[in-house]
Amino acid sequence: MAQIFINDKPYEFKEGETILDIARRNDIYIPVMCYLKDITPTGACRLCLVQVEGIEKPVASCVTYATDGMKVYTDTEDVIKQRKRNLEFILIKHPLDCPVCDKAGECMLQDTTYEFGINEESIKSVKPNKPKFDWEMIIHDANLCVLCERCVKVCHEITGCSALKIKERGYNNLITTANDAGLQCDFCGLCVDFCPVGALLDKPYKHSVRNWDLEYVETTCNYCPVGCSVKYGKHENIIYKSSKVEDSYICSLGRYAYKYTEHEDRVKTPLIKADGELKEVEWTAAIDNIKTKLDEIVDRYGNDSIAFILGSRLSNEALVNYKVLADGLGVKKIVSDLSFYHPEFFNLYHKKFNSYEVVGRLDDIKDSDLIFVIGADLARESLGIKWKVMNAVIHNDSKLVTIGLKKYEYDYFTDASILADYGDFAKVFHDIINSDNKIYEDIRGYINKAKKISFIVGNEYLEAESQKESVFAFVDYVGEDKLKSFFYTFDKPNVVASFSLGVYGNYSADELIEDIDRGKVKCLIVADFYPFNTKGNYKRLRDLVGKVEYFVSIDLFKNDFNKGANVILPVLSHLESEGTFTTIDGRIVKYQKVIEPELDAKSDVEIAYLIGFAKGLQLESYPKAVWDNEIKGKNGYPDATYDEINGLLYKDKDYNVNKIEYTYKEQPKGTKEVYVNARYHNNYLSTKAAIEKKSDETYRRYYFDVDRSVVVGEDAKCNIPNCSLDKNIAKGIVLIPKN
């Protein structure tokens, strides 16, 4: 194997590695400022200079590739001198605002200056007077920018947004938006995390608390099932900022949507309806009321008159404890919220793979030769999956084909982008297989050349496609031997556990709606479920819930669905409690308590325990006990204790690929209304994060308001006010924000 000598010691390397790559792998320190391991190097800062034998001047180690026998020296007198000069050159333009800069205490430039022993400016200069930009959630002060290009590279190569660029040249150049207007991106804030100075800052955090006063807590984001790690900075039990952790990224939800715990609709204490109004009571009174009513209903109508609806934002432990409670009460009618959301797709999925769980792991996406994104607006449905796709395309040269109801923001990276007019995805699959049109011939060529193919199916497909088996027949066409992974997207974190722990499948939303309508369900207990006022069983449940004799809502908020409940029990949020959930690819992740609750709420696990205790049942009252006694080693979950869960364990899963019998049937052309997540929002919880705080001195807005604009494609009829025509939307399609 080839060798390189660094400071006279030999090190092996692989072709394509830079001097800096080898040095870092072997714990040899070389200072950097512009370098990031996740992006292509730029060599902009010139702080990573090293001396290479045979080359007159020092070279940037981040862009100099190793060759066999190369001799490198990292700390010669000339190298150290040149590095210091380059740092002083950076400081010529940089304002000396450290005492008032929000980045102080975690600034790479500040730390490197101290490291190099620079205590004062060697060259006095007039500092630049460049513009400052307000980009909604992000503030950009161009005067502080050191032009390392990290933000531009990250935005292009990791997120796929390509929303930033370098404008002008020389002394006047600056980072600005690609369109020279507002920032149009995913607002993941990775540019802020990777900025080595204070040029890019989170607007809600600016001028609030000094970094060294913050206590940081690392946990797992609970907005979607990807399971990204996130770090929250808090002071005096208030969260002021959040950021990515090493080897993990976060989206706008994980970064900015954490203030929902302070929303005015938060249920702060148990509520019981009396004289037509919900009134505050103690927990003992609320639990006694539930026990008494359950006894009465069972005596009059039997156990079969009680039903549960369990949401998939509940933790593994909460799902199990509610299920144990239902079993103890003799209740068989347990409905997963997944049963309200296109259960026909999930049932077909099970028929195809003999499992509800996705095929493959998330890392399989970036290792694929060809990726099909089918009706999945990843910017709204799963940024974590989008980043895997971008990584595959940009760094692994994977082919990308998108089939959707709109042109996605990352269309620039696609090899083929097709609109499914009238929501007829099945026709697109049919044309890929049969048409002699060049774009379809090209896609067939990609399929023939690829050895590893991944599929990502999303909300647009589930909402619009009437022949839902068509995508599984398309997998048959591609071939089982080439199938690397198959993912469906979802906007709640614990969809996999709802399948694995037996919550889904025994009793359907259709059956529940029918039983309520016929008066067979007299008591409905709903935990963490909000049916949007959209269509189908969501709307039917909202219309019929008033027929239920006794309605118990276990929720974070008062809303237009549970306002008619007989009892509302306040529950702790993921930020105020702990537990585990199962990611989309079966990884077991733990979330930690970030802040102490400042209201009279309890965890879902404890609520199930209290109701069970009142009924004479023995349930566990803590997540650790539920995991260790009810989940560990069962249903494919690892035989590891709660304390051993470290985010690296996966549950076992098995699948078979069965052939789907299907023949395409031409569909009538007409308008299809499709409900989607509003931009930057995920289901219901994020809408409560958009709060404002005002005082005599400051105004802060936390998170984005819901944009309820309705967009339509050509040949679509829209009866909703404020519809706007968009040429990037498929024909016959109306996209309606459900939030």
Characterization of the model:
The protein is an alpha/beta fold. It is 27% helix and 20% strand. The strands form nine sheets. A seven-stranded mixed beta sheet has the order 15-14-25-24-23-16-17, covered by helices on one side. A five-stranded mixed beta sheet has the order 2-1-5-3-4, sandwiched between helices. The protein has a five-stranded parallel beta sheet with strand order 20-19-18-21-22, sandwiched between helices. Helix 8 runs parallel beside helix 20, helix 8 (316-328) crosses helix 21 and helix 18 (509-517) runs parallel beside helix 19 (536-544). The longest helix has 19 residues, at 283-301. The radius of gyration is 28 Å and the shape is globular.
